[in-house]
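Let's practice the habit of predicting before peeking. Look at the sequence and jot down your guess about where helices and strands might fall. Then scroll down.
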Amino acid sequence: MNIKKRWLLGILIVLLPSISMANFLDLEIGARQTGMGGAFVGIGDDASTVYWNPAGLDELKSVEIIYGYGRRHNKGSINCFSLAQPATFLAGGTWGLFGLQEDVVEIKDDTIRRKGTDETTIGLGWGKKMNGGFENMPFGLLLGATLKLLKAEEKDATNRGAAIDIGLLLKPKEILPGTKEIKIGVVLRNALRTKMSEKKPASGFNLGFGILMDKKITLGKGINLNNIILSADADHPEGESLRIRLGTEMLVNQKLFWRMGTNNGDLSLGTGIKSGQWQIDYGISLNSPKPSQQISAMLTY
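Done guessing? Here is the structure:
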């Protein structure tokens, strides 16, 4: 077993016992995505894309591991991790894994109460560039899918379920002036799902756009902004109204990230710092009445 595989195995052994979470795809994975307002379906350029849009997995060139912790506006906490492993076997492409943990609480009469429920979600995803036979099309095409398993433990019962997300990512070959890359992401959430107790997990549809700008901006003396990303998502969960998410990310002097976004009207802010193989990110969503925030660490090798 080489050093990389030992690293990977060791980190998984540490993280897997703590995986538990809520509600299929009702949360944001990653402090970076929180800072961008959750507009990530059309970006898909880090390990968390196994959760957001599995089609983006094959955009990754290296092994990536992300671990994050957050506090929600209702004072519930979440733990999450995601992993991506480029492969040359099992149909090629890139494989991903994610898991989440959330304290399930509710607020009644301004009092926070535990509902006595712990929910665990684990997802296994795969994505691949579909190059063969599509060379003459005006866009690059990536496809992916994620199988999700959910277990909800209440005081008197345990419910289990499963669902599949199907993702697609288009990359137009003719891009607009001033842009380096354009992506269009589409995800069908919980396309195939089983019942949890008396109900099935809600399905949903996401459409996302991502633009990487081919421009460097200089602010004052010694401050350079580049790798500018603009993103927008339209999210339509089953039985709910349309949600609009907007986000942006800029790299400052090749080390510091600055982010801003809006999630259905709530302002989000974020920052991050990159050093060698490591990246540390922080994001906050200014929900009413209290904010939600996440911090995460990413290792790339």
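How did you do? The longest strand covers residues 111-129.
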